[in-house]
Amino acid sequence: MNSTEIIQLLQQQQGPALAAAVADGLHPHVVVPADRLMAVATVLRTDWRLRFDLLRCISAIDWPAKNTIELSYDLLATARGHSFAVKVLLDRANPRVESLRGIWPAAEWHEREAFDLMGVTFLHHPDLRRILLPEDWVGHPLRKDYQYPTEYQGLQLNP
Amino acid sequence: MGLIEGIFEPGLIVTSVDWVLNWSRQRSIFPMTFGIACCAIEMMAAGAARFDLDRFGAGAFRATPRQADLMIVAGTVTCKMAERLRRLWEQMAEPRFVIAMGACAISGGPYHLHAYHVVKGVDQIVPVDVYIPGCPPRPEALIEGLLRLQDKISTRTIAKQAQG
Ligand code: SF4
């Protein structure tokens, strides 16, 4: 299926859940509200025409001017050969969204990474710990307003 | 500092024992199998057939710190790794030596500025005997560093040192 057909199918099934849809360009995607993400993801995973069985990546993007954190879930259907993306926009002060660990197991580590570096909280995630940085690290370094530490456990970091 | 070092009066026998000890230590430096970033690729190349660290007695990479004499810090030391690196060093038997290989291990290298997670020089964590600059150093440079370490080992003695 091409992106236009995927969007049509999603609109039939999820109608008002889609906040926006982009069918052309390099990154065709739909934008959904955070509370509808689970429903849309379930359709994408289980509908026999879509069958998106591979979650390639979860990207978190910080937009301080818009006061938004954007999550982009990039999907691939390995048997059908089509790919697509879903985006959610979250409040920058308190980014929370449902974990998709139950739909795509690969989401577990991607979500831990987004939590570690961007501070997004994934509800009902089985093991939401930092994945790259030490457990006692302060802050989320890929936020655009992150203040670099000068010291970590006695090590000088900014000479 | 080993168990028998610094307790004997200098003399003919002591210097002869020194010579034997240093000779054997110089020629059987066992490095630890420990590579943490791209520099480790050059270290592996140095250990493989073309450059063959075994010619200098340093080709037996040990998979445990307890059998190793030399830690080649080949790569970027992150803050998370710092604690583990220190623990590995503490597990090594004395006398133990450290080579800081590459710009990252010396000073943070490409990550000296604008990196929140990289230790700016492994000498903040463990004492370093030889620094090998480069990004990455070629295997010849690692071999040169090893020879300088052998020079350093040759000056060791079990005799009492003058206090000072
Ligand atoms: S010094 Fe260069 S080659 Fe070596 S670990 Fe650092 S970036 Fe990699």
Question: Can you describe what's shown?
Answer:
The complex is a heterodimer of chains A (159) and B (164). With 159 residues, chain A is α/β, with parallel strands linked by helices. Chain A has three helices and nine strands; from the N terminus they run H-E-E-H-E-E-E-E-H-E-E-E. Chain A has helices at 3-14, 37-46, 107-118, and strands spanning 20-22, 29-32, 54-63, 68-76, 83-91, 96-98, 121-123, 151-152, 155-156. In chain A, the strands form three sheets. In chain A, strands 1-2-5-4-3 form a five-stranded mixed sheet. The longest helix of chain A is centred in the first third of the chain and has 12 residues, at 3-14. Chain A is elongated, with a radius of gyration of 17 Å. In chain A, 24% of the residues are buried. The model of chain A has no long low-confidence stretch (mean pLDDT 91). Chain B has 164 residues and is mainly alpha-helical. In chain B, strands 1-2-3 form a three-stranded parallel sheet. Chain B starts with 11 loop residues before the first helix and ends in a 10-residue tail after the last helix. The model of chain B has no long low-confidence stretch (mean pLDDT 89). Chain B contains five helices and three strands, in the order ααβαβαβα. The A-B interface holds A 132-134, 137, 141, 146, 148-149, 152-153, 155-157, 159 and B 79-80, 82-83, 112, 116-120, 124-125. The complex binds iron/sulfur cluster. Iron/sulfur cluster (SF4) binds at residues 37-39, 75-76, 102-104, 109-110, 135-136 of chain B. Iron/sulfur cluster binds next to helix 4 of chain B.
